[in-house]
Design a protein that fits this description.
Shape: globular
Helix content: 40-55%
Structural class: mainly alpha
Number of helices: 8
Distance between the termini: 27 Å
């Protein structure tokens, strides 16, 4: 919905108008207004049973949440930050080196200990194996494994291993990572494995 004029906006159906306005609020950095409009658009598209539009809004909401600042970060990030502030040694498994470094700096600026960063692409199982090996080679006890990553696509895509991307990233990769790190976890008394599910299923109806 790029380059819309005022006249174009006036002719848009309510759901499309809310979608366009929500995206505009996102560009302006108004998270709450963007979320409100996108969620209202989602409800209208659901009522119209427009499945493609529903998925588009789900994606937009996902990107909106992933772009939040620390003050609006979710419980997972806040838990990691609390651990870092208490002196726990964190290791971030990130696909993007630049974003990993940015998150690393944000944790430090918020008062936490500087975490380590290991690159890992969950759409590539060889990358998951390399990351697990690097984490084990770093030594030290492993008290908590927090699996918190996921993806959603509108069309079918396959990984380098030949698996459908959503299945590979959301299920196979964390399962493999957990299995590879399980021996280290079992050697640490009281170790925990936490796997965070997505709320995306709440946005879609059969």
């Amino acid at each position: 919905m790029d380059d819309l004029t005022i006249g174009d906006l006036r002719r848009l159906p309510p759901a499309d108008l809310l979608h366009a306005r929500g995206k505009a609020y996102e560009q302006l950095g108004d998270f709450e207004a963007a979320r409100s409009d996108l969620e209202q658009a989602l409800a209208l598209f659901r009522a119209d049973q427009d499945r493609r539009a529903v998925w588009q809004i789900v994606l937009d909401l996902g990107f909106l949440w992933s772009g939040r600042d620390i003050a609006r970060a979710g419980a997972t990030f806040q838990e990691a930050l609390a651990l870092a502030r208490d002196g726990s040694r964190l290791t971030l498994l990130c696909r993007n080196a630049e974003k990993g470094a940015q998150l690393q700096q944000e944790i430090v600026e918020a008062g936490g200990e500087r975490p380590a960063v290991i690159l890992m692409n969950m759409a590539d199982l060889s990358s998951v194996r390399r990351a697990a090996a690097e984490l084990i080679e770093a030594g030290g006890p492993l008290h908590v494994l927090l699996n918190n990553a996921g993806v959603v696509n509108l069309s079918r895509r396959e990984t380098v291993d030949g698996f459908e991307v959503i299945f590979a990233v959301n299920h196979l990769a964390p399962f493999l990572l957990t299995g590879l790190l399980l021996p280290a976890l079992l050697r640490t008394p009281g170790a925990r494995i936490v796997t965070v599910a997505s709320d995306a299923q709440r946005f879609v109806r059969d």
